[in-house]
Known about the structure:
Belongs to the AHA1 family. By secondary structure, the protein is an alpha+beta fold.
Amino acid sequence: MTESQATNANQANTEEGKLVITRTFNAPRELVFKVWTESEHLKHWWGPIGMELEVKKLDLRPGGIFHYSMTSPEGDQMWGKFIYQEIVAPEKLVFINAFADAEGNTIRPPFSSEFPLEILNIVTFIEHDGRTTLTLQGGPQQATPEEHAFYKGMFESMQQGFGGTFDQLDEYLAKI
């Protein structure tokens, strides 16, 4: 592990059934916010390691959508979307994340019929001495007790997944 990786290690907790991940990046807040909100940047880092991201649409406004596909090296494709609820540049993004089909309709993920249809995510960006601490908080929206329980059972997997995604973000920020 490099010094950069060690200082940027994920910190995670699971307060009140929400996934909370905090990560510090060696980049100013305006840049970190920009790479979260522009398609030409998102395609380079968003999603699981090894997946190729294609942005179908990005409309950054309350009620707007980020609709994308992810393709595995084997050619398997999944679709997802954000529906933006609140944007306070460069401090905060609030969006509902969901699996989607190619037309942007919300669907169940291919891996479970018990995963919640919608996850409300709040991402905050705080700068200190040219570095940005990002905190992501996510939890099910309008979910059944079974969906909440399934989501809680996925915390370790989601922490690993976001860890890889944020590693890609860290590498991308170092390049631009």
